[in-house]
Amino acid sequence: MTHPIHIAFFGECMIELSGLPLKKGFGGDTLNTALYLSRLTQRTPLSVSYATGLGKDALSQQLIEAWQQEGINTSLVEQYSDKLPGLYMVETDPQGERSFMYWRDSAAVKSYFLNAELSKLEQAMKQGRVDAVYLSGISLAILSDVCKKRLIDALSDFSQAGGQVMFDNNFRPQLWTSEQAKYWYGQLLPLVDIALITEDDDQLVWGADESVEQRSVRLGCKETVIKRGCEPCKVIWQQGGETHHAYVSAEQVANVVDTCAAGDSFAAGYLAARLNGQSAEAAAALGHQLASTVIQFSGAIIPKSEMAHLTLS
Ligand code: ADP
């Protein structure tokens, strides 16, 4: 694999309200991965950008500043004066069960590919200023069909020009149907260099007739990681004209506190190692190490100090 030096993430990060009294935070699958990747690669030549839509309000500004403090490049963020970021609230019942409510239908990110002019991400891809683009099923689901097509067309040109496309299949049935997801995943997967696939989500979208691996090979995905919670993940990659496989065991965790962002952090560990030239097995091991650390804390983003033991060897 070539050695990308600039990876841009596209997706939605929302304001999070949780706890009593209510506290403000932020969260979103692609942002979680970008943030953990940025933390893991501070001392490497890799640079991490987050491309999204925000408003020009104080909360949007706070998000941008928080991301910059994590070392994330925010030059691909589009800000709209008539829009606000999406919002979600976490309610915890007396038994400790959490429920989530979302206000995201009119979130600023939906405008990202709406204007006639190219967005900052499209310009960066066209001008060769990014080497890799990462998106998830949620990044696609939140866009109108016209915008989904525009993004996939841009990724197709980018891929043909040598850019790398990375995809996490996070499927949220609240945002679209499995039929819709199947169609759009089918459009995107042939462009994908690294696919991070949660097996449960995959089955919800595609059913059980074809395995993830068969589909990956059929659609021409160059590298696929199949995640299965505490079970070993399976990595399938093409090298020297041959297909290779490996199973990599997850870490044992005695006390799982919150599996929020398990897959997002796994992706960050995997990419940190892979984009720094390590083997697929070493990358999966770092993905497991980070994910197993993250699930021992409450919330998506754990304190940076708790990641001190994780290094790129
Ligand atoms: P997602 O969060 O995308 O649904 P998974 O549940 O498959 O994905 O979890 C992603 C990764 O998180 C796993 O590959 C593993 O590294 C880690 N993980 C999740 N659950 C556990 C667990 N119970 N014990 C150890 N590791 C876990």
User: How are the strands ordered across the major sheet?
Assistant: 4-1-9-10-11-12-13-14
What's the total count of β strands?
A: 14
Percent range for β-strand residues: 15-25%
Which ions and ligands are bound to the chains? adenosine-5'-diphosphate
**CA distance, first residue to last residue:** 18 Å
Helicity range: 25-40%
Using the CA coordinates, give the radius of gyration: 18 Å
Sheet with most strands = 8 strands, mixed
Please mark out the parts with pLDDT under 50 across 5 or more consecutive residues, or reply none. none
Can you count the helices? 10
What is the overall pLDDT average?
A: 95
From the spread of the alpha carbons, the general shape counts as: globular
Content-based structural category: alpha/beta
SSE order, as H and E? EEEHEEHEEEHEHHEHEHHEEEHH
Question: Could you explain how this protein is built, in words?
Answer:
35% of the residues lie in helices and 23% in strands. By secondary structure, it is an alpha/beta fold. The chain starts with 5 loop residues before the first strand and ends in a 19-residue tail after the last helix. The model has no long low-confidence stretch (mean pLDDT 95). The strands form three sheets. Strands 4-1-9-10-11-12-13-14 form an eight-stranded mixed beta sheet, with helices on both faces. Helix 1 (29-40) packs across helix 9. The chain is built from ten helices and 14 strands. Bound molecules: adenosine-5'-diphosphate (ADP). Adenosine-5'-diphosphate is lined by residues 198, 227-230, 233, 250-251, 253, 256, 259, 262-263, 266, 288, 291-292, 295.
